[in-house]
Design goal:
alpha/beta; Rossmann fold; 7-stranded antiparallel sheet; 14 helices; 18% strand; globular
Amino acid sequence: MLAALASPLVCVIDDEKDDYEPLLAILNECFVGAIHLLGSSDCVPPEPFKGLRLIFLDLHLTAAIGKTAASHTANFFLKTVATVSAPLIVVIWSKYASDISGEEETESDLFKRTLLIAAPCFKDRLIFVEMEKPKVDDRPQDWRKKLKDQIQTSLRDHQAIEVMWSWNELVMESCAEVCRDMTSQAASAGSTQALQDNLKDTMRRLADAQSGGYFGPKTAPSHLVALLNQLLVDQLEHPSGIARIAPHGDWLGVKSTSAPPAGFAGKMNGLLLTSELGDGAAIYSPGTVFRIKSAEGFECAFGKKVNELLEEWIGPAKKNYQDWRKDALPVLIELSPACDVAQSNRISTLLVAGFIAPKSYASKVKISSEAFGKILNFYLRWPVEGMQAQEIVLGYCNRYKTTLPAASLAAWLAPWFRLRELPTASIRNSNAAHAARVGFVSL
């Protein structure tokens, strides 16, 4: 049960009692929960922490110095901090940070270089800050107070990080509010049972109600999570939550006058519009983009050849047809309503066909009728054979739609990545509008 709480935000890695005890005491005075690790092999977490936001790190966790010390500390860091962690402030707090090592660089720089060689992905995820740590004999009587001031000073000029931390706190408080509301409702049910039994009954009833009748041990957890997510979003969007971010309006509200870096929009769209498939997802999750492994399978499902789908986008002139065949990949996009999937009452999956091509093709895609559509260009983060990581255009044709049994994945399809719900809903709405057009004539 305690494993559900093993997600610290702050970590102190230090092996000297005279150093880490005052630091932990100050964090406690500031009401900041922190976990302390000695930096030895017997205190390595079972898995690296993914949610860390701040680390106070001593460079010498053994008696060694130089390369040996840097290697040991970097190795322990990798076992403690997941490489997906970001953004993470690493406060290097060492008596010897500025000492010159055998490599003619400081001990601090040697550690950073060693760590980034071992895990290059940390380069754009970590923010290093150095904070002075005097030797024990050189510490004044009011050292704790000065240490507290040092911490505040070291973290002062990181406004963007503070926004992220404030939002993190908002999410945690929103979760707490949902838990309070659930507890209050369970306690007010009029039952004479103990609170935890009332909570269990409440959760069972909510999962059952969310399921729409398709309820059981395998599906109940996902139904409960879906409902709790709705309550959480309501808390997050409540105006009172903005109060934590509002103090940053002075810099956040200043419009940038410089042009964004090349590719910025495409890469940001890739984050906003797409996601990886995720473990445990349904075989045909809404928004899943499928590659076509077999042209014969496509022809059997649609009664049309794959090349005929691509021809739809070229127009009668048939210009650059060979380029289309070479550069564009046909895909299918899953459009089933999310509620049908959550309630496990879907018999067939609904798929619409389209293509993915380099962004240079975006201007060549002619949207001549409501049968055709495309979404904003985005950066493809999951390259495959025939399509490298690059900015792309995704188009679809509402004339090419089919249904397949939802219980098993068709052998000619390969799940690739997922469109998030809003772009999926835009394609779903376009498809529904195309299917619902009336087309009568009157005089």
